[in-house]
Here is the input.
Amino acid sequence: MIQSFGDRETEFLFREERSRRYGPLSRVALRKLIQLNQAVILRDLAVPPGNRLE
Here is the structure.
């Protein structure tokens, strides 16, 4: 679960699902934020392998 954000714009993207700062990357960034928020343990982020968790 996300407990805090590095900056206001990232939090705004997560809460409002849009951001000018990230432009065309907004969809990917939002998808990653949702994955981070849903993870209970670090190992949850290992799937899919494309996440490259090491």
